[in-house]
């Protein structure tokens, strides 16, 4: 063996011998402490400390903890780690060699004559042979002198039996024995727990009591909020939920002096009450809430006046809350910055039914993708916002024909706004500035100063919104160029531009889109557009009233509102015809409206009579006939206007 290999092997064996010496000394030093802790753990598992009062249990745990710390400090003070010489001596003893058998490996010859060198080489050769014979011995801690009754063997067997006896309560018993509970020393009394889980309102399920189910698995409906009330602690406990998400809340004093906490559970997990340690727990298992199901049961049917009939069915395990028609253009116009899906709200069934099917009518005249080929999907939404999406249907949306150039321009700009539904970029943080309000009310109020030019919201807007604002600026660049004959149209466009300028998110841009739709109607129909919108609103409200649980009371006021809206609409038609086409057209419009007015009055009386008699379905059918009468009048007026325009062109 080479010298370098021998030295390396000697170093390894010395380290092993040193480790054995360290372990033997640690076993001797810690034996008494280990036996004492084991005996205390045995008593804890057998439930002996639990027989003491709460304060005595805490004091005993504090005493054990102090004893453990004192013993550890004492052992550290008297601890002496094995030296290398001691390890070499132990290694030589284990290998049955002299204590100095390895010193020759490090020695150098005292003289360099032939006799001294020969003697030195012989000693080194013997040392190399000794290194090859090194053998580590077994541990010899010598514990019998400290443990004459062999408790180190009996105590583990007793602990194993005690663990089996304690069962699932073993962690709690050991925690009480070794983790001091300061609660009783601070005035805490025995804790009484009252708890229940309230399922989501949409489930229509009764609350689930948790008071008698501590430590158990509790299955509940989804969307639960847990309410826990406790008495006994002098300070506020903590209610902790540990699952895929972690939530916690502090208890607060209720009016009756008890501690109370509420916590909404995001899913399954462990709910525990903690006051210095865990005082009680439940393994909560709320049921999963599946997404809704939605489907078209027939192709979408186009009706008169840009309306469509949608036949659908939907279901959900806890009820359908809302219905949407989600439309995405297949080939959007190339000038559009974006063409995101657009949602239109459908009339939802009352009462959040678990299964529903109906034939719904929807007005698509103001849809941003009117006239385009689209892909439509039915979307059913439940109470917590989960969506169920149907298979797609392809169709071309109906489009209301607008002949006025300003009306078309307003609709094109509106389409840019509604087609780009991306979120705004995040706004930079700014400091709120205020100024004294002067002598208003108490004289100490302040007014918030908002400088929109210093933080323009439009700079954060998506591209479609910025493009719409640019188009509005270009369209209204010069109000006095003679292009705007109706000031209301110009003001409507500028109002839409202002609303875009202050909108802080995509939802707020909807206000500008509604303004542009009303402006387009004003540009196309004049003042009759407002009365037309009021009439459509009155019709919708009457239809909803007839479907309510008490249609007789709800419909009486709605019929009267529809009567007033119809009168204003019929009065506005001749005025608008006179403004746009002259006296002859106004006279024709007046004659047509007078002929139709009697029929409308008769139908309104019939609706009122049927609703008073509680015949809701017949009243709703009469309401649909009234809608058809008004639509026929609208078509006649449009045809007369088109004929007059053709005559003027000829």
Plain-language structure description:
It is a single chain. The longest helix has 43 residues, at 3-45. This protein is α+β, with helices and mostly antiparallel strands. It is elongated. The protein contains 14 helices and 21 strands. Helix content is 46%, strand content 18%. Helix 1 packs across helix 6 (170-178) and helix 11 runs antiparallel to helix 14 (616-649). The strands form five sheets. It has a five-stranded antiparallel β-sheet, with no helix packed on it. Strands 3-10-9-5-6 form a five-stranded mixed β-sheet, with no helix packed on it. Strands 14, 15, 17, 18 and 19 form a five-stranded antiparallel β-sheet that branches. The model has no long low-confidence stretch (mean pLDDT 81).
Compact description:
By secondary structure, this protein is of the alpha+beta class. Helix content is about 45%, strand content about 20%. β12 and β13 form a beta hairpin.
């Amino acid at each position: 063996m080479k010298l370098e290999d021998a030295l390396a092997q000697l170093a390894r064996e010395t380290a092993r011998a040193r480790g054995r010496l360290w372990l033997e000394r640690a076993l001797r030093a810690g034996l008494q402490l280990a036996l004492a802790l084991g005996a205390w753990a045995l008593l804890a598992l057998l439930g002996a400390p639990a027989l003491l009062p709460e304060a005595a249990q805490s004091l005993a745990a504090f005493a054990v903890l102090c004893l453990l710390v004192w013993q550890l400090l004492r052992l550290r003070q008297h601890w002496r780690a094995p030296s290398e010489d001691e390890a070499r001596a132990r290694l030589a003893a284990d290998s049955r060699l002299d204590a100095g058998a390895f010193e020759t490996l490090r020695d150098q010859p005292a003289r360099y004559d032939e006799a001294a060198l020969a003697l030195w080489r012989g000693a080194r050769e013997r040392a190399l042979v000794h290194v090859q014979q090194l053998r580590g011995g077994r541990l010899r801690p010598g514990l019998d002198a400290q443990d004459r009754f062999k408790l180190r063997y009996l105590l583990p067997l007793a602990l194993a039996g005690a663990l089996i006896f304690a069962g699932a309560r073993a962690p709690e018993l050991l925690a009480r024995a070794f983790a001091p509970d300061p609660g009783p020393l601070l005035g805490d009394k025995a804790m009484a727990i009252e708890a229940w889980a309230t399922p989501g309102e949409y489930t229509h399920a009764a609350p689930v009591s948790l008071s008698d189910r501590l430590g158990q698995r509790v299955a509940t409906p989804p969307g639960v909020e847990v309410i826990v009330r406790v008495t006994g602690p002098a300070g506020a406990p903590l209610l902790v939920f540990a699952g895929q998400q972690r939530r916690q809340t502090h208890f607060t004093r209720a009016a009756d002096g008890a501690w109370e906490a509420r916590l909404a559970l995001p899913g399954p997990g462990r709910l525990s009450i903690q006051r210095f340690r865990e005082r009680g727990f439940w393994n909560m298992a709320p049921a999963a809430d599946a997404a809704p199901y939605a489907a078209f049961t027939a192709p979408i049917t186009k009706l008169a006046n840009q309306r469509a009939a949608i036949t659908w069915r939907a279901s959900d395990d806890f009820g359908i809350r809302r219905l949407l028609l989600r439309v995405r253009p297949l080939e959007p116009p190339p000038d559009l910055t974006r063409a995101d899906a657009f949602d239109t709200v459908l009339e939802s069934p009352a009462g959040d039914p678990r299964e529903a099917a109906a034939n719904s009518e929807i007005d698509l005249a103001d849809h941003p993708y009117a006239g385009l080929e689209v892909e439509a999907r039915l979307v059913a939404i439940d109470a917590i916002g989960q969506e169920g999406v149907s298979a797609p249907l392809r169709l071309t949306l109906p489009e209301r024909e607008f002949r006025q150039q300003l009306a078309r321009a307003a609709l094109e700009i509106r389409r840019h706004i509604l087609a780009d539904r991306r979120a705004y970029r995040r706004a930079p943080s700014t400091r709120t500035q205020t100024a004294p309000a002067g002598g208003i009310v108490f004289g100490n109020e302040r007014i918030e100063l908002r400088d929109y030019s210093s933080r323009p919201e439009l700079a954060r807007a998506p591209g479609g919104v910025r493009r719409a604002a640019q188009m509005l600026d270009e369209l209204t660049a010069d109000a006095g160029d003679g292009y705007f004959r109706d000031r209301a149209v110009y003001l409507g466009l500028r109002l839409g531009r202002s609303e875009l300028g202050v909108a802080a998110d995509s939802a707020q841009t909807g206000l500008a889109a509604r303004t542009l739709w009303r402006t387009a109607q004003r540009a196309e129909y004049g003042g009759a557009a407002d009365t037309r919108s009021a009439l459509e609103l009155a019709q919708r409200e009457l239809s909803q009233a007839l479907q309510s649980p008490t249609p007789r009371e709800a419909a009486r006021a709605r019929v009267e509102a529809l009567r007033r809206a119809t009168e204003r609409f019929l009065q506005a038609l001749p005025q608008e015809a006179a403004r746009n086409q002259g006296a002859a057209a106004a006279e024709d419009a007046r004659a047509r409206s007078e002929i139709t007015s009697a029929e409308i009055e008769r139908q309104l009386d019939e609706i009122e009579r049927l609703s008073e008699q509680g015949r809701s379905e017949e009243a709703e059918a009469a309401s649909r006939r009234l809608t058809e009468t008004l639509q026929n009048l609208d078509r006649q007026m449009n045809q007369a206007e088109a004929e007059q325009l053709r005559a003027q062109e000829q």
